[in-house]
Amino acid sequence: MYTSRPFLYLALWMGPSGLIAILAGWFTTEIGRQPWVVYGLMRTADASSGHSLAQMTITLVLFVVVYFALFGAGLGYMMRLVRKGPQTHEGSEPTHGGPGQKRTPARPLSAADDGSDNDHDHIQHKGN
Amino acid sequence: MGIDLPLIWAVIIIFGIMMYVVMDGFDLGIGILFPFIPGKVDRDVMMNTVAPVWDGNETWLVLGGAALFGAFPLAYSVVLSALYLPLILMLIGLIFRGVAFEFRFKAKDHKRHLWDKAFIGGSLAATFFQGVALGAFIDGIPVVNRQFAGGSLDWLTPFTMFCGVALIVAYALLGCTWLIMKTEGKLQEQMHNLARPLAFVVLAVIGIVSLWTPLTHPEIASRWFTLPNLFWFLPVPILVLVTMYGLFRAVARHAHYTPFLLTLVLIFLGYSGLGISLWPNIIPPSVSIWDAAAPPQSQGFMLVGTLFIIPFILGYTFWSYYVFRGKVTHEDGYH
């Protein structure tokens, strides 16, 4: 199974499948309930604010640009992890945890040890 | 006479927004102070003082927004429509700085400056536009037929711009005194040196906003300056001066905790001054909390869940600050 090419390709494509499933589900509910925003009670057209087309266009474009930039950076980071491949941790004992220790992460991504952090720099420590 | 639900909801929202201002205030302040501290190591320490708590701080912004939506839908639709652009720009600032927290620590050396800039720019933008939104809110929002009846750039006035700058200075002082509390050595020394000029500027902007607001809003002037109101409200400016004096004293004797606590008092006083000026309007100048309230069934239903959840939020917030108490130093990392 570890060398079967079709299986490995299938596993590869499972990567984006979660995202596709979420988007498909979201599209189905949001498009499926139109033209209602509150089903059977209020039309989407009646619920919208009176903003100008220009205002909506500018802010939408702004969001798209910002999200492309930031998701692009995130994607680049994920690619960096993928290129590096899985790391073995043989011989390195996990710490016991506790406040300020490595196993009490200070940020969401600090829980994922990818070896690219400068380990000494970001670890939150209890004082004294 | 039953329970005054709109009043309870107003208190919850006012409390939530105040929690947001004092808590996200100091961590936005860290970003505002970044340009003064160029070294990577010091910047790491600065960021690490807030890294475990900053996103929890923004819980209160979400709570305030959701409570406004549920309890005062009229205010939600009108105020958020009127402040659409500044609030969107605030959000974009928050997005950049939120992402910078994660990516800055992951970035290679030659790219880190980008995330430093995202953190600085995001913090400045978020703070500035919060101040702008606040200024525009004080200035009042025209309502016709329960809908926003102004233009999309109504918020763009000299007063609101000044409020934006004023909030940047206030958050910088919060961040500065927070760092005095959470760091030691050279960084703390730099913050002690910065606190005094910052406090002077904060005193100045408080003074200017306190004069500018009543001068342009007769109804706010009469709220403050008619008798006997004047005697009731006089403690607020007097306490501001006393607190300021205490702050200068505390910074001069190199206290660790007192400057931050006194800055919190200062923010609270400024906030209560705002409350005195606007109460009981939820859409200044004329829509009160009772005019804008949702039906009592909605408000009562939501109140049950909210009163259940708020102790939990307070509990875990307290717990996370307790876990990450004490000084943050760079040397601590080398264990």
Largest sheet, spatial ordering of strands of chain A: 1-2
Rounded average pLDDT of chain B: 89
* Main beta sheet strand tally, sense and closure of chain A: 2 strands, antiparallel
Q: Ranges of chain B with pLDDT <50 over ≥5 residues? A: none
The total strand number of chain B stands at 4
How do the helices and strands follow one another from N- to C-terminus of chain B?
Answer: HHHHHHHEEHHHHHHEEH
Number of strands of chain A: 2
* Oligomerization: heterodimer
InterPro entries (chain B): Cyt-d_oxidase_su2
Membrane topology (chain B): Multi-pass membrane protein
Protein name (chain B): Cytochrome bd2, subunit II
Transmembrane segments (chain B): 6-37, 82-99, 119-138, 158-181, 193-215, 230-248, 260-280, 300-324
Give a structural overview.
The complex is a heterodimer of chains A (128) and B (335). With 128 residues, chain A is mainly α. Chain A has helices at residues 5-32, 44-47, 53-84, and strands at residues 36-38, 42-43. Chain A contains 3 helices and 2 strands, in the order αββαα. A two-stranded antiparallel sheet of chain A has the order 1-2. In chain B, the strands form 2 sheets. A two-stranded antiparallel ribbon of chain B has the order 1-2. A two-stranded antiparallel sheet of chain B has the order 3-4. In chain B, helix 1 (5-33) packs antiparallel against helix 4 and helix 8 (158-182) runs antiparallel to helix 9 (185-216). The longest helix of chain B is centred in the middle third of the chain and has 32 residues, at 185-216. Classes of the chains: A mainly alpha (128), B mainly alpha (335). The A-B interface holds A 49-52, 55, 59, 62-63, 66, 70, 73-74, 77, 99-100, 104, 106-110, 114, 116-128 and B 41, 44, 48, 51-52, 77, 81, 84-85, 88, 92, 95-96, 99, 101-103, 105-106, 147-148, 152, 323-330, 332-335.
